[in-house]
Amino acid sequence: MLELVGQAGGPLADARLWHLEVIQKEPLSPTMHRVVLSGPNLRDLRYAPGQDLMLRVPRAGGTVTNRRYTIRSFEPTAAAVTIDASLHGTGPGTDWIRTARIGDRIEAIGPRGKITPRLEADWHLFIGDETGLPGVLAMIEALPSASTVAALLEVETPDDEQEPGLTQGQKPQLRWVHRLGRSAPGDAGPLQSALDNAAQPVGLGHVYVAAEARVVGSIRETLLERGFGRDQISAKAYWRRGLPNAEHGEPTRAD
């Protein structure tokens, strides 16, 4: 039986507790790993592209640590949900994904998250690092084929690039920003420079930002200075450089 965990009308109103099992795992790139999970009643999962599952990562002594990962894709007929995770550091979540074996079990709560494609926009710009890449690709794939879509995506090397699975007619413009050891993950410079050199299409646009906390803040301020309304920006910090995420799965707040 599914367990409802959210309160009616609250941010987790549709979230449920899922009992999942690893049925597939594979590396996608030097910094990205994929796990595919299945479980009883998973066919009942209803989510919007960009939402996530909060994995309840088992720890020593029977405790758990919560870590949130965007749903990369979902196959209802196979009752399988795919999670792609950046292994840019160490921690309970990345350690579990790195070492998970077929048959390992884990609980998850979801779907969660409010950042999903804004279909009313005339154009869409996605800005993110590798931690935001799974959500960016999922949302790009969900947009209508006639949508005007661009993305500024930061990764370490060209080997870390991934292409969205496009339907006929979709032609997003993806610009890859490679650190190549010249800057550290979490530096705002590379994405800020890419944004400074990006042309802005005509019409009402929406910008989605998914990266390190300080980078997200810097990009948001730049967009506001350029005249974007706050309702035109969907920003989500996935991590904070130098600090582990908090026990509830969100980036730790800076003092």
Describe the SSE topology.
Elements: E1 3-4, E2 16-29, E3 32-38, E4 52-58, E5 64-75, E6 80-86, H1 92-99, E7 105-112, E8 123-128, H2 133-142, E9 148-155, E10 173-178, H3 189-196, E11 205-212, H4 213-225, E12 233-239
Parallel strand pairs: 8-9, 8-11, 9-10, 11-12
Antiparallel strand pairs: 1-2, 2-3, 2-7, 3-6, 4-5, 4-7, 5-6
Helix pairs in contact: 3-4
What does this structure look like?
- With 255 residues, this protein is of the alpha/beta class.
- The chain folds into 2 domains: 3-112, Translation factors (Elongation Factor Tu (Ef-tu), domain 3), CATH 2.40.30; 123-239, 3-Layer(aba) Sandwich (Rossmann fold).
- The protein has helices at residues 92-99, 133-142, 189-196, 213-225; strands at 3-4, 16-29, 32-38, 52-58, 64-75, 80-86, 105-112, 123-128, 148-155, 173-178, 205-212, 233-239.
- A 6-stranded antiparallel β-barrel has the order 2-3-6-5-4-7. The chain has a 5-stranded parallel sheet with strand order 10-9-8-11-12, sandwiched between helices.
- Helix 4 (213-225) links the parallel strand 11 and strand 12 (233-239).
- Helix 3 (189-196) packs parallel to helix 4.
- The radius of gyration is 18 Å and the shape is globular.
